[in-house]
Amino acid sequence: MKTKVRRKKLLQRLKKSQQALIGSQLAEEFGVSRQVIVQDIALLRAQGEKIVATSQGYFYEENLGMPTVKASIACHHDDQEELKDELLTVVNYGGRIIDVKVEHPIYGELCGNLMISSVEDVENFVNNYHQNEAALLSKLTDGVHLHTIEAVNEQVLGKIKEELDEKGYLLEE
Q1: Is 26 helix (H, G, I), strand (E, B) or coil?
Q2: Do 7 and 31 form a contact (C-beta atoms < 8 A)?
Q3: Most exposed of 12, 30, 53, 170 (fewest Cβ within 10 Å)?
Q4: 120-151 pLDDT per residue, tens
Q5: Residue 81: which pLDDT band, with cuts at 50, 70 and 90?
């Protein structure tokens, strides 16, 4: 299959899917390596396509769901148990963690797409973190980080913030 045809079909596949598409599965489906899929996605994004890369796979942004409200919240925690509890707090109240951001002294804002919206997503993220022995972005900032949180309405968003504050994860203003 020619490169342009593959990218067109890949984009169509992403636009039709209501769930994350995993790079290795796409590679198998299109008969190429995972790295080729990564490059295809990068080039499609550079052309302005709204593809979101997460630890669960690739999403087309418009397929992420119903109208919602979003807020950026500043958080702080030190250990892995608190990380898991923070994420579970958000999803247990019906929220979605869109991303995590930190402020780096050289690069400026660094952002990681998360798209965590269920207990299963939290478990997968934490397991992936442990299996890869990777460092969290918040390690660069002594545990301080921002999350973009999405919820169905302001009341749910408020409850999430309230619970995170009670647990001591929200930074004081």
Answers
A1: helix
A2: no
A3: 12
A4: 889 999 998 889 888 888 888 888 999 999 98
A5: confident
Parallel, antiparallel, or unpaired for β 69-76 and 144-151?
Answer: antiparallel
Residue 144 and residue 76 in contact, taking contact as beta carbons nearer than 8 Å: yes
Q: CA geometry: angle at 105 spanning 82 and 126, to 5°? A: 25
Show the tokens assigned to 155.
């009341």
Three-state secondary structure of 99-163: EEEEEECCCEEEEEEEEECCHHHHHHHHHHHHHHCCCCHHHHHCCEEEEEEEECCHHHHHHHHHH
Angle at CA 139, nearest 5°, toward 89 and 24?
A: 75
What token pair was written down for 31?
């008969």
Q: Which H or E element spans position 40? A: helix 34-46
At a CB cut-off of 8 Å and minimum separation 6, what does 160 contact?
A: 89, 90, 93, 95, 149, 151
